[in-house]
Amino acid sequence: MARRTGTLLGGMPYLRFGTGPPLVAIPGLAQNYEPTVGFERMIVAQTLTPVANRHRVLRLTPHPGLDPNSTMADIARDYADALRLEFPGPVDVMGTSTGGSIALQLAADHPDVVQRLIVVCAAHALGPIGKKVQRRVAEEVLAGRPRQAGREMFSALGDKPRSRLAAGMGWVMGGTMFGDASPDLITTIRAESAFDLSDRLDEIEAPTLVIGGDQDAFYSTELFREAAARIPNGRLILYPGKGHMSVISDPRLMLDVLDFLDGPGATGRATGAHSPSARSVGKRPSQ
Asked: What pLDDT sits at residue 162?
């Protein structure tokens, strides 16, 4: 499957591959917003291949050199401007982790660009542990301690909060993860820490699927449930026993995404009043 990398007008790096109707994928937090190449491109493509077999995936990251005072709304506006230039109408959008926060802001502020929305391991606001962890990551990066930053981040990524094993892995991988961190990482962390869409979830017009794990340290089960329940055409798939990273790597994830987009129950963009039944929250049984 051919993969192309480049930069859209406005400076947003992209990775494009697959065939079919478009799906814009907004990834999670990264140490910088350079084009996805080499080993990272291979891993990203491998993860998204099940979806790319049916959809033309445009993985799009924020442009490098963000204004240090950028808010989540500012970042979402950059995406909206880019998507209006790239596509003639609204497209399906999938945001993962921090990308999910961006995607929710995008759908609320710019409904004309989002056809359907998939939010993976994210909700309308970070939980208290998530805010604390990301604040510490920023502090360690600014202090020039990438291993400590990796330890802080990984400690909250496992299936149990503050996993010592995961923290150890973060220490080992910290140099790779945060050794070349740009100021954009700090800007994005600060923007997400201030992000809170609680009062605007009911403004999101796009049919929305929220996918999360009930052991996610960054977001509580209650936050996932609230996000799905308060979006007028929202629903939830909750993976029992799964934390932040294990949901992202779970083989069911792409199958659930495809079912939402292409399955027998797939729905298009709502064109009128939302039906009351669309506000129910579903939970996938354990497999």
From this structure: 61
What whole-number distance in Å separates Cα of residue 53 and Cα of residue 46?
11
Q: From CA 152, how far away is CA 137, in angstroms rounded?
A: 6
What is the arithmetic mean of pLDDT over 80-108? Answer: 97
Residues 138-161 have a mean pLDDT of: 89
Print burial letters for 46-60: b (CB count within 10 Å at least 16), e (below 16). Answer: ebbeebbeebbbbbb
For strands 56-60 and 22-26, give the pairing: parallel
**Nearest residue to 182 (alpha-carbon basis) of 56, 287, 34:** 34
Burial class (CB in 10 A: 0-12, 13-18, 19+), 163: buried
d(CA 194, CA 138): 14
Residues 6+ apart with CB under 8 A from 200: 108, 124
Q: Which helix (H) or strand (E) holds 183?
A: helix 183-194
Spatial contact of 103 and 120, defined as CB atoms under 8 Å apart: no
